[in-house]
Amino acid sequence: MKAAQSFLALASREGIRACFANPGTSEMHLVAALDSAPAIRPVLCLFEGVATGAADGYGRMAQAPALTLLHLGPGLSNGLANLHNAYRAKTPIVSLVGEHATYHRANNPPLSSDIASIARPVSSWLKTVEVPNQLLDLALEAIQAARKTGPAALILPADVAWSDEELTPPTPRERREEPFDATHLEEAARLLGPRTLLLLGGRFLSAVACSAAQRIGAKTGALVLIETFPARVRREGPAAALRRLPYLSEMAASALANIDTIVLAGAAYPVAFFALPGRPTKLAPEHARVLDLAAPGSTIEGALNTLASVLQAPETEPSIVDRPARPENGGAIDPASLAQSIAATMPENAIVCDESNTAGLFCYDAAAAAPPHDWLTLTGGAIGQGLPLATGAAVACPDRRVLALEADGSALYTIQALWTQAREGLNVTNVILNNGAYAILRLEMMRAGVNELSEAANALFDLKRPAIDFCAIARGFGVPAERVETPTKLVAALERSYAASGPALIEVMIR
Amino acid sequence: MKAAQSFLALASREGIRACFANPGTSEMHLVAALDSAPAIRPVLCLFEGVATGAADGYGRMAQAPALTLLHLGPGLSNGLANLHNAYRAKTPIVSLVGEHATYHRANNPPLSSDIASIARPVSSWLKTVEVPNQLLDLALEAIQAARKTGPAALILPADVAWSDEELTPPTPRERREEPFDATHLEEAARLLGPRTLLLLGGRFLSAVACSAAQRIGAKTGALVLIETFPARVRREGPAAALRRLPYLSEMAASALANIDTIVLAGAAYPVAFFALPGRPTKLAPEHARVLDLAAPGSTIEGALNTLASVLQAPETEPSIVDRPARPENGGAIDPASLAQSIAATMPENAIVCDESNTAGLFCYDAAAAAPPHDWLTLTGGAIGQGLPLATGAAVACPDRRVLALEADGSALYTIQALWTQAREGLNVTNVILNNGAYAILRLEMMRAGVNELSEAANALFDLKRPAIDFCAIARGFGVPAERVETPTKLVAALERSYAASGPALIEVMIR
């Protein structure tokens, strides 16, 4: 198993510090070799969807790849939905997918499948190691690809991993940030004006990038928006107030109705999440001119900063926005009082993992006045991301509080993440928004033109028969939990969780 | 949405009676249309892996396809591991995968991915409907393919589903069983002898098929074995004692050491589950001649019956095997007393869904003396199958008791299945074998030649830190639960669950 050890030594050298694993027999030698790479923290997950979602949360916060250890085609399959989200976020991840020994593949044993076919749609880079002496070169390629373009998948047959061949690690290559392409800067500077949309996106919208964009907007009158589902936004100072393009295409189209120019800064051209009968799927007017300031997913800090300088956009005055007061009432919790409770109590430097869907709709805007924090969203729309994402973010940033805002239906996809949080003592406050329904689907059905819910639809969107007791489930996984039904109690529960160390779950009964 | 309604009308006509669903926006019109097809029972699952596993259990028992409703690439991905198991079992399933409207795909919205690439490795049939007037022809093709060869995937863009075009259903085609290929019968009859292995497999080993095979063995002296992980075996009468090829390749190779001829009846050539350093992956001697009596996965009742007649194999005398007595002791539960407890109490006509891995190793042989029953196993090795499989089997056979024998680690993959059992009032006894570990991996590591578990390995195979409380989790999902630590209490709990209706969970603490 020298090959497995050499692989992990190289991964350590290249800055990999965490391995989210749900290993199986085909990955035994990698597991055995982990002791030889003490810089890499092994984190056990009860389901591969937790491992890949955690690697996504880790990668977004650390801006460096974690490893995942997945067991052949089925293990990869279980982790695929969260790799889809990571692929959309361009998060650096190296997925190590164990495969049967090269000579065993032709036997077609029960666990065989076409791993590459499954991995390709969510991989920015994908290769299979066929012989041991390819291993380290391909591993380095995978790590570099992950850093540059997002999830990379390295398929590793068992006989390569257990080989005792001596392997020589490739020379370290210098890492350098690709300079941004300044070709369009002058043109962008000319085009920006009151009927221009400056749309921000990409891997990480830093405080510097957000501030530059806000200043550009203030100077030129351009509408500055963040894409609907950004991978990560650092929110501090006046730029924390930047808004996101609305999810509902009707609202988005109305916000963009007067736009004649779109400058894309790391974001893709704005399109509807879903097509609806008779409605447009492109959200800006058809005639609008489009200019790419940076490729989708790129880091855009440099480009925006330069653009702000070219435009001589002045520093923004620190605005004085009052942080919302703690709500003090004993009534039911609704989306507005939820948002207020979150914003009023959020600790300094929190990391919010937002999969709150309908119930959490107002939280983002409300939190603009909270202390500086990072906000991570559901980039690919594949639900079941939130709790794993929070788990990985907490591994990356042990000194910060992670707040998972989680819809009930989505939480149930990957609820096993709670166990890893308990096991690793992670500082995650899991807020489960229990409205007893796939509320988003009721909404989507209306939008799709079906105005009266059929009996079947009502049944299929319902999560109340029987009611789910999230506190019991959390305790079963070793996470302390409490249920709250009023804003006052929610605030108290949030503050209790922030003051303690380790994970907690708060089940919020939403009206 | 006439198209969606026409599709469901055709599915009803073709004998589809259940739809395991976890729908999303792209499937709205199908959900809305379900009221127009009252013959199809919609069953809501909290995770797609539950939906596909349930469709597998349903299809194995009903021998007819269920529908699954999956939400684009990520929904399919979540259901993929259990579709892998179903693909290996050749279970009839029609997976309906919702896709973006045809004209929206090019926009590459966040939930887009290459659905076909993900589906292909687990589909016996796979097509995308591009225009409404293809829908019903392709739907009929999918249903027929599912009946014949296993999981079929029909990718259905939203604008096809919501179309109001009038569609004419294709004429029903006569269904007929393919006659078996008798070419090799005479040769098989000649070859069968004391050094022959008759290996049984396929979709369904009926009582008739098992009995014929047993008689052939008695007459010719051939070794008759069932493949290691059969899709479904009906066990009644003397043939219930037929054994399965051992999982451990060392044991299997030793059982087959003297074989010089292999007659395959619906089974594939026996190979190791995993390759191990320095060990053969083909389990029979290299020189052994191989004869295919039927293609892998075929129904082999006819072939075996005819073969038994050709050989003039007499009826087997009913053997008198005593059913094991209820264990009566207050000690700890080990695999032997577990097997005894199960065999001693199993009700008439039970359906056993066996994902018990290490702890349940002796249950199958012990249950040979239990009343007639069906036994379903982990055909594809993708764990997380058991609880969903039991859920679907119970939907197919509401008058029978389903017994899920479930390893702790595997149970945690798709634990959400419990909620569907509670919601639908399904008669499932979920026996969770809690040994606080991925015990199989400890074993596999030894077999892989790593004799001393590293610190990392010990940590990654451990499920005790923190201990998982399955009873709390079950109650959270609405299923009554109890924990037992002695055989006496296990027997009492089993009998209590068999006497009641609806689901129950028994957490068995295994030594």
From TrEMBL, chains A, B:
Residues 1-106 form the Thiamine pyrophosphate enzyme N-terminal TPP-binding domain. InterPro entries: THDP-binding, Thiamin_PyroP_enz_TPP-bd_dom, TPP_enz, TPP_enzyme_TPP-bd. Keywords: Thiamine pyrophosphate. GO terms for molecular function: acetolactate synthase activity; flavin adenine dinucleotide binding; thiamine pyrophosphate binding. The keyword ATP-binding does not apply. This is Acetolactate synthase large subunit. It comes from the Bacteria. The keyword Repeat does not apply. GO terms for biological process: small molecule metabolic process. Residues 369-508 form the Thiamine pyrophosphate enzyme TPP-binding domain. Belongs to the TPP enzyme family.
